Amino acid sequence: MKIFTAAREKMVEHQLEDRGIKDIKVLYAMRKVARHLFVTEALQSRAYEDCPLPIGENQTISQPYMVAYMTEALELKSSDIVLEIGTGSGYQSAVLAEIVRQVYSIERIKDLLARARKVFDELDYTNIATKNFDGTYGWKEKSPFDAIIVTAASPDIPEPLIEQLAVGGRLVIPVGNTSSQILKRVRKSEKGIEIEELCGCVFVKLIGKYGWGEDDNNSKGYLIH
Ligand code: SAM
């Protein structure tokens, strides 16, 4: 069984550190989590390439740089409780789980979640709880969250996620149309919320009550995060 240690190190140096990722907790997690275990065997040799990859069900595992960038943007502390919307392959959840106390992750596609759950269990990630549901509702019973990450593109910031963010909390979400978005960071304080625009990005659709409808158009035919 290949373990790809050299490929992973090269990915961290060239794709992350050279592009300005600095948070040592994020770099540690990206060095540790074996990305190839979150893709099919046929794609394992490509797992450390600088691009998203298909994971089935028309969904993708995001580019390593985007995973690191969004994780850094969450400004995580080891005591944090984090909500992730869009478990997908489970890779981002595992990166988060290396850094924080507890991760809650929601995925709407049952088969993807079952695959991710199997990998979490095999790798003994006891601090990742998952749910098969529409994540645009958040996970109220487990709120408030110190950080929330949405790994699919939304037309707007879902109101329940803002409500479920703790005071002092950070929410990172791609917002825009179905072909391109701006990654936004929301900070919640006693005074209200503050929204920053971080960078342009392209993600698959967040489908649900406070996201897109199933049939809303995605005009791009190529592989997106
Ligand atoms: N974080 C993932 C990873 O590391 O592999 C990548 C996620 S992929 C870019 C986006 C995921 O969001 C897809 O698996 C998709 O099914 C999921 N998704 C879309 N809308 C959702 C919703 N309302 N609730 C939960 N998951 C959703």
Describe the structure.
The protein is built from 6 helices and 9 strands, in the order ααββαβαβαββαβββ. The mean pLDDT is 95. It has a single domain, classed as Rossmann fold. β8 and β9 form a beta hairpin. α1 runs antiparallel to α2. The protein has 225 residues and is α/β, with parallel strands linked by helices. It has a 7-stranded mixed beta sheet with strand order 5-4-3-6-7-8-9. It has a two-stranded antiparallel sheet with strand order 1-2. The structure holds S-adenosylmethionine (SAM). The site of S-adenosylmethionine has 27 residues, from β2, α4 and β4.
**Weakly predicted, low-confidence segments:** none
| Chemical compounds bound to the protein | S-adenosylmethionine
Which H/E pattern describes the elements? HHEEHEHEHEEHEEE
- What's the overall geometry? globular
List its salient traits.
single chain; 225 residues; alpha/beta; Rossmann fold; two-stranded antiparallel sheet; 6 helices; 25% helix; 27% strand; globular; binds S-adenosylmethionine
